[in-house]
UniProtKB/TrEMBL annotation, chains A, B:
Keyword Transcription regulation included in the entry's annotation: yes
Superkingdom of the organism of origin: Bacteria
Protein's name in the database: LacI family transcriptional regulator
Residue intervals of the HTH lacI-type domain: 3-57
Organism: Spirilliplanes yamanashiensis
Record bears the keyword Kinase: no
Pfam families: LacI, Peripla_BP_3
Keyword tags: DNA-binding, Transcription, Transcription regulation
UniProt xrefs under SMART domains: HTH_LACI (SM00354)
GO molecular function list: DNA-binding transcription factor activity; transcription cis-regulatory region binding
SUPFAM superfamilies, per the entry: lambda repressor-like DNA-binding domains (SSF47413), Periplasmic binding protein-like I (SSF53822)
Length: 338, 338
DNA sequence: GCGCGGTGTTGCAACGTTGTAGGGTCAGCC
DNA sequence: GGCTGACCCTACAACGTTGCAACACCGCGC
C-alpha cells in the first residue's frame, strides 16, 4: 500500500535503481534527474522500507535492552541513559522486561526473540552463569551487573562486593557497632544480593565487628515495601541495630519510612545507607547516603562496547572484555545528619 | 550466515516450503517428515528471519512508545505498564525519547522513523495540535495526555483540568486560604501545565478564593530541583502560602524538601499536593497527597486501542476515539498529617 | 580515429519468507 | 474400474531493497 521505489521510479520516469541511488545519496546522479526523483519522492511521500533494507543484508538499527522492570527507578534511569547513548550511534532501543523470571531471561539469551536486533544489552537478575553460555553467537551481547563466570560475552559492572564493603566501612567509621543488612535473598541465583552480602561480611570482620546472622534480613524483592517490612522486623527485636545497610535505595527509603513512622531518629539512632544513588534519595527526608555506581557511564560503556563488536569482523572477534566502573560513596543526611 | 529455510530443507531432504509449513504449524505434514524437519531445525539452530517475514507482508510485532524522558518516574511507570500491556498482544516496545523537543516530536509523527513499527503510542509534551494532524496515515497512533484538537488519532487521558480542580478544592476544604501553584510554564505549547493551571484557577474562584498571580510559580521543567527552587521563592515572600498545589509529584517532593530544610512543618504550616501518584510519594516523609490517574489503566487502554486499530480494515476505520480515564485523589500525610 | 577513464543510468540477482496453485498418491465409494 | 476427495508435498512468484556488472555516452589525449 505505501509507495515503493517502483512507484517513485514510474512517476519520475527513471529506473528503480536510480531512485535507490538518489535515496542513498549516490554521487553520480545528474542534478536534473535527482531533482525529478526528489520531487516524486516528496509527492508520493515515499519512505524506505526498513524490513526490505534489513533483509538485503543491512542492520536493523535496533538494539534490545533486557531488564527486570522499568518501574524500578534504578532500571528506569539506566534505560534512559542507554537510550541516550544509543542515539549517538543512531540506534533505537527495544525494551524487554523479564520481571526477573529465569525462563524469560533464558529465552532472551537463547535467541528466541521474535525481532531482528543488532545487539543485546542484558541486565540479568536470576540467570546463573552457565545459562548465559548458551547465547547465540549471532548477535553480540553486553552484560550489565556482576560477572560470575567467564563466558563469551562482554561485561560492564562495578565491583559490587567492594562497594558494599565501602558502605559498611563508612557506617562502622561513624562508630556504629550493630550494623544490620537488608536485602539478602534465598535463591542462589540472586547474585547481586550475594555479592553485597559478601562485601558486608568482609567489611564487618575487617572492622572487628562480629557477624550476627540475625541482623541480616532477607527480602522477596528490592522494593520500598520490602525495606519497610524488614526494618519493622529489626525494630521489633530486643536489641535493634544502630545502622542499616540496604542493598538498594528503594529498600533504604522503605526502611527510613518505617523508622520515621516509629519515631526513631535518622541518623541519630539508626543510620541508613542505600545502594544505586537513584534520584529519589537526593531529595528524600532525610537525604539518603548511598553507593553511586555512575549509571550514565555504565550505559555509555555498554553501548560503546556493542558498537565496537558490531564494527569488527566476527571472524577475528576480540576476547570478551570486562569493564569495571568506579563507584563512589554519596554521603548525605541519612548517615551524616544535617 | 545464520541458517535459513534453505539449509534446513537441504538437511532434511524436503522442500523449502515444507520446512516453512512445519515451522508455522501447518497440519498436513506427515509425522515422519515433521520429525525429520524438526531434527534439522534443532541441529542447525534455525530461527526464522524476522525481516523476511515482515517484508512478506506481516506485522513487525513492534510498537513504538514515544515519551519525553524515561528518567522521570511517571513516564518510567507508564512505560513499564505499556510494556506489560503490549506483552499480552505479543508486542515488543521500542522506546523513543523526545526530551520534549518539538523537532523530534514532529519527526516521529511525520513518520521519519527508521524502523518498521505496527503502531505508535505517543505522549507529546511540546507538540501543538496542528502538527499532529500531519501524522502519516500508515501506522495507527494513540495519543496520551490531554487532547486539544480533534484530529485523526485516538486518544487516552484523564481530565487534567478537573483533576487539578479536585486537588485545589481538597486544599481549600482543609481551610487553606493562600494556595500557591508550582508548575506553570511560559511556552504556550505546554498544554499540561496550562490545563492544570486552568483547573487551579477555576477551583479557586469556585471556592471564593482570590486569584493571586504572584502565587503561581513558573518552572523550566517538572523535576524535583525545580520544585525545590520554586518553593524557596515562595517562602522568601513576606506572605508565604499555607498550601501548595504542584503540577506533578516531583515538583511536590522537591517543594517538601525545601520546606523541611527550612523547618516549615508539613502539612501544619504548608500543605502540599502533587499530581501523578508516583511510587516515591507513597513512601516519602511525609507521604504525598496527590492526584492518581490510574496509569496502569491508561496504558492498557492505549495498547488495546492500538490493537483494535490494527485489527480493523483500514478502509472502514472507525472515527478517532477519545477515552477519558477516571482519576482519584490519594490523600496522605502532606495534606492530612499523620 | 581510437582507446580510455569518468559519468549517468539500467537490468539482474539475491536477501528469506510465505501464499497460491498444482501435482502426485492413496483410500473409499458407487 | 473409475471418480472423488483427502492428504502430503513442491514449484513459483512476490514482498522492497541494494550490490554488481554492464552499457551508452562524453570529452580527452595521442
Amino acid at each position: 500500500m505505501p509507495p515503493g521505489l517502483k512507484d517513485v521510479a514510474a512517476r519520475a520516469g527513471v529506473s528503480i535503481k536510480t531512485v535507490s541511488n538518489v535515496v542513498n545519496g549516490y554521487v553520480h546522479v545528474a542534478p536534473g534527474t535527482r531533482a525529478r526523483v526528489q520531487e516524486a519522492i516528496d509527492a508520493l511521500g515515499y519512505r524506505p522500507n526498513a524490513a526490505a533494507r534489513q533483509l538485503r543484508g543491512g542492520r536493523s538499527g535496533v538494539i534490545a535492552l533486557a531488564l527486570p522492570e522499568l518501574q524500578m527507578p534504578y532500571f528506569a534511569e539506566l534505560a534512559g541513559f542507554i537510550v541516550q547513548a544509543a542515539e549517538r550511534h543512531a540506534w533505537t532501543v527495544l525494551i524487554d522486561q523479564t520481571d526477573g523470571q529465569v525462563e524469560r531471561e533464558r529465552n532472551l539469551v537463547s535467541g528466541l526473540r521474535r525481532h531482528a536486533i543488532d545487539g543485546l544489552i542484558f541486565s540479568p537478575l536470576a540467570l546463573a552463569g552457565g545459562d548465559l553460555a548458551r547465547g547465540e553467537a549471532g548477535t553480540p551481547m553486553v552484560l550489565l551487573g556482576e560477572r560470575v563466570w567467564h563466558g563469551p560475552a562482554d561485561h560492564v559492572a562495578i565491583d559490587n562486593t567492594a562497594a558494599a564493603g565501602d558502605a559498611v566501612r563508612h557506617l562502622a567509621g561513624l562508630g556504629r557497632r550493630r550494623i544490620a543488612a537488608i536485602g539478602a535473598q534465598a535463591q542462589s541465583s540472586a547474585i547481586t544480593a550475594h555479592q553485597r552480602l559478601a562485601g558486608y561480611r568482609a567489611a564487618l570482620s575487617e572492622c572487628g565487628l562480629p557477624y550476627d546472622a540475625s541482623l541480616v534480613v532477607a527480602v522477596d524483592s528490592f522494593r520500598r515495601a520490602d525495606g519497610a517490612a524488614a526494618m519493622a522486623a529489626l525494630l521489633d527485636r530486643a536489641d535493634p541495630p544502630d545502622a542499616v545497610f540496604c542493598f538498594n535505595d528503594l529498600l533504604a527509603l522503605g526502611a527510613i519510612r518505617t523508622l520515621l513512622d516509629r519515631g526513631v531518629a535518622v541518623p541519630d539512632e539508626v543510620a541508613v545507607m542505600g545502594f544505586d544513588d537513584i534520584e529519589d534519595g537526593r531529595f528524600s527526608s532525610p537525604t539518603l547516603s548511598t553507593v553511586s555506581p555512575d549509571t550514565a557511564r555504565i550505559a555509555r560503556l555498554a553501548v560503546d562496547l556493542l558498537a565496537e563488536r558490531l564494527g569488527e569482523d566476527p571472524a577475528e572477534a576480540a576476547a570478551p572484555r570486562e569493564l569495571k566502573v568506579k563507584h563512589t560513596l554519596m554521603l548525605r543526611e541519612s548517615t551524616l545528619g544535617r
